[in-house]
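step: validate -> pass
step: tokenize input -> pass
step: predict -> running
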Amino acid sequence: MTELRYLDFDYSEDTEGHGTFDAMASTSPEKTPEVHAEVEQVLAWAEATFPDARGALDEGAVWDYDLQETREDPRFTTITFSISGTADFCAALREQFALD
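step: predict -> pass
step: emit ->
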């Protein structure tokens, strides 16, 4: 199990059984690399655990993600990260990162 400091996920599910974990982290620019490191940790786990399975879920892929970064003023950077997947992917992600 891996702990995340900056990414705090909310979970939702669509009618086709695909789940989405959404997280947003707003930090000072000097902390932004730490948030990016957590995102990379999650993505590295996803690729290692479900290799070559990323893509559009409605086309049969197992998982996919979206990553956005904005700086609204010089004091804060906001990173929005969503990762979606099949029921099996979501269960494994939840277990790996203790997402309740």
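step: describe -> The two ends are 13 Å apart (CA to CA).
step: cleanup -> pass
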